């Protein structure tokens, strides 16, 4: 009986082995299945690379659009500045004429003589017309007696104590300064109270 008792155990073990083999995938060395697995793996890698390339392309597209917008804005600003300050050199040249006309009017003269009076009136009208033309194009005078000294607009020639003026107040304007659309084209030369 002992032999018979052992035989059923041996049969049970064989049944269990067969069942396990049926459950476990059979590993075969079939080249077709290996090729299919390799193709599937390559397909997944290609899909990942395509997704990565698409993301990079999208990022590059966004960056390029942003750069184009920045270039467009800078160009518009440059054109605006060119229009705004195109008259700067011409305006500087006209300032000498304004200075000369103001000096002509500041000289003492015999205003009783009609020919001299007419000459002064003509110079005065010419100066007014020239200043109004400069104003139309954005050229404005800066630097007046009593203003506070501003190093962005004024150039101090000297500092002297002066009665009736506070410290850093302009006491004398030696030459008017001018701005073109807010940009200084010539600083005012002034004397400042100490």
Automatic annotation (TrEMBL):
Residues 1-31 are annotated as: Disordered. Residues 32-74 form a coiled coil. Keywords: Chaperone, Coiled coil, Cytoplasm, Stress response. It comes from the Bacteria. GO terms for biological process: protein folding. Participates actively in the response to hyperosmotic and heat shock by preventing the aggregation of stress-denatured proteins, in association with DnaK and GrpE. It is the nucleotide exchange factor for DnaK and may function as a thermosensor. Unfolded proteins bind initially to DnaJ; upon interaction with the DnaJ-bound protein, DnaK hydrolyzes its bound ATP, resulting in the formation of a stable complex. GrpE releases ADP from DnaK; ATP binding to DnaK triggers the release of the substrate protein, thus completing the reaction cycle. This is Protein GrpE. The lineage of its organism: Bacteria, Pseudomonadati, Pseudomonadota, Gammaproteobacteria, Pasteurellales. The gene is grpE.
């Amino acid at each position: 009986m002992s032999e018979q008792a052992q035989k059923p155990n041996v049969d049970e073990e064989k049944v269990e082995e067969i069942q396990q083999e049926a459950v476990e995938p059979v590993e075969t060395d079939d080249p077709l299945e290996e090729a299919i697995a390799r193709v599937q793996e390559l397909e997944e890698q290609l899909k990942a690379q395509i997704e990565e390339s698409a993301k990079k392309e999208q990022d590059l597209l966004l960056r390029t659009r942003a750069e184009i917008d920045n270039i467009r804005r800078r160009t518009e600003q440059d054109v605006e500045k060119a229009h705004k300050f195109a008259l700067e050199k011409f305006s500087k040249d006209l300032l000498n004429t304004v200075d000369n006309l103001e000096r002509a009017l500041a000289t003492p003269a015999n205003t009783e003589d009609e020919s001299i009076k007419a000459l002064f009136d003509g110079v005065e009208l010419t100066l007014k017309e020239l200043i109004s033309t400069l104003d139309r194009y954005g050229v404005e005078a800066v630097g007046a007696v009593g203003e506070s000294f501003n190093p962005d607009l004024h150039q101090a020639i000297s500092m002297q104590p002066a009665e009736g003026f506070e410290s850093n107040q302009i006491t004398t304007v030696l030459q008017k300064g001018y701005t073109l659309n807010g940009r200084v084209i010539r600083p005012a030369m002034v004397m400042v109270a100490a």
